[in-house]
Write a structure and sequence with these properties.
Blueprint lengths: L2 E9 L5 H14 L3 E7 L2 E8 L1 H13 L11 E7 L7 E5 L19 E3 L1 H9 L4 E4 L3 H6 E3 L13 H8 L7 E5 L4 H12 L4 E5 L2 H8 L7 E3 L1 E2 L6 E2 L5 E3 L7
Parallel strand pairs: 2-5, 6-10, 7-9, 9-10
Antiparallel strand pairs: 1-3, 1-4, 2-3, 8-11, 12-13, 13-14
């Protein structure tokens, strides 16, 4: 029986994130989940796999359970399947940031780019005055990207600020449409660019995964596969597995 995989994140104030680690880890272990969950003062980010019932119970805990007390009421969620367990173990880690940009002043709960649904994405990126920007790492871009997208050629998301300083100009790049795997990197990248004076910054809601889930292949402007940080390696349209390796480490 295929396993259910849940990728999730939310920027939310979690000043007690250190105290949340052990009860969250215990709940995941009770449900026999494997995967990776990051906790920080700014929110939660993770991907876990298990049975349908276990995943549904876990998501209910995040959204409505006493542990988070309703603070994860806007969780960005994407579900897919795996033919076999795509993680070796369970990790619940404490971090300074749930996605590392390196600028503590950036807060997507205060300011963020304009969300664009998958159904409206093709029209936006076809506009001649829009720069389409892939915010992922170079090795991810090499596996697949949108037609005409700019590859920043970064080795880690922490290099995005340097890329922006060198190659982006608010006076020249008036409309920017960015995308990433699940949406989380774009939340921070769009918040950062807006703080730097860029006027119109858009990002693909739910990321590439939501686009591949909802967009018919014949209408797609995506080319290649979407790298994921687990042993499935990459997903294609419909979020179907495209390959496996012995191990893939974040």
């Amino acid at each position: 029986m295929p396993l259910k995989v849940a990728a999730f994140y939310q920027f939310a104030a979690l000043p007690d994130f250190r105290a949340l680690r052990e009860p969250l880890r215990a709940r995941c272990a009770e449900l026999d989940l494997k995967g990776s969950v990051l906790l920080a003062h700014e929110g939660i980010n993770g991907t876990v796999a298990g049975t349908d019932e276990a995943i549904d119970g876990f998501i209910a805990e995040l959204k409505d359970g006493p542990l988070f007390g309703g603070r994860l009421d806007n969780l960005e969620l994407k579900f897919s399947e795996a033919a076999q367990m795509p993680f070796q173990r369970l990790k619940v880690r404490l971090k300074k940031e749930i996605v590392t940009l390196g600028d503590p002043t950036v807060d997507p709960t205060r300011q963020v780019g304009t969300y664009v649904d998958a159904a409206d994405w093709n029209e936006l990126i076809a506009a001649p005055d829009v720069m389409v920007l892939d915010t992922r790492n170079a090795f991810e871009v090499a596996m697949g990207t949108f037609e005409g997208a700019l590859d920043p050629r970064i080795a880690s998301f922490g290099q995005f600020r340097e890329f922006a300083a060198r190659h982006l100009d608010p006076a020249k790049h008036r409309r920017i449409a960015m995308f990433c795997t699940g949406g989380i990197r774009c939340e921070k990248a769009s918040a950062y660019l807006l703080a730097q004076g860029f006027g119109e910054v858009y990002h693909l809601k739910g990321g590439i995964l939501r686009y591949l889930e909802e967009t018919p292949q014949q209408d797609s402007r995506w080319r290649g596969d979407c790298f994921v940080f687990d042993e499935r390696v990459a997903l294609g349209h419909g979020l179907h597995e495209r390959g496996q390796l012995d191990a893939v480490h974040e």
